[in-house]
């Protein structure tokens, strides 16, 4: 596990092959609207295809979630594909009413804002 106060990467290594078989990141954000409390974000969860369905994903998500709790996060959030919602629900994550939207701005070659849009 590596961390620099705001970014923690956790990995699962297969010690027989010395290969990383799963990884996840915890990003810590300070939230001024919550009296400078910290929020955790679960990002970049990945599991080797051969190990999916064998509890490795559950292990790494639970580990990172517990780390966020130890770091005194007031909550932990994530964005995921619709098909993964049931998996995260089994680990205690919920869609909060009125707060279950994920919106994105992708930065490609087009400008985000132009004079015509203002």
TrEMBL record:
Domain of life: Eukaryota
Pathway: Nucleotide-sugar biosynthesis; UDP-N-acetyl-alpha-D-glucosamine biosynthesis; N-acetyl-alpha-D-glucosamine 1-phosphate from alpha-D-glucosamine 6-phosphate (route I): step 1/2
InterPro entries per the UniProt record, alphabetical: Acyl_CoA_acyltransferase, GNAT_dom, GNPNAT1-like
UniProt GO BP: UDP-N-acetylglucosamine biosynthetic process
Domain N-acetyltransferase: 7-93
Residues in the signal sequence: none
EC number: 2.3.1.4
Catalysis: reaction(s): D-glucosamine 6-phosphate + acetyl-CoA = N-acetyl-D-glucosamine 6-phosphate + CoA + H(+)
GO molecular function: glucosamine 6-phosphate N-acetyltransferase activity
EC class (word): transferase
PANTHER family listed in its UniProt record: GLUCOSAMINE 6-PHOSPHATE N-ACETYLTRANSFERASE
Sequence similarity: Belongs to the acetyltransferase family. GNA1 subfamily.
Name of this chain's protein: Glucosamine 6-phosphate N-acetyltransferase
Species: Timema shepardi (Walking stick)
Lineage, top ranks: Eukaryota, Metazoa, Ecdysozoa, Arthropoda, Hexapoda
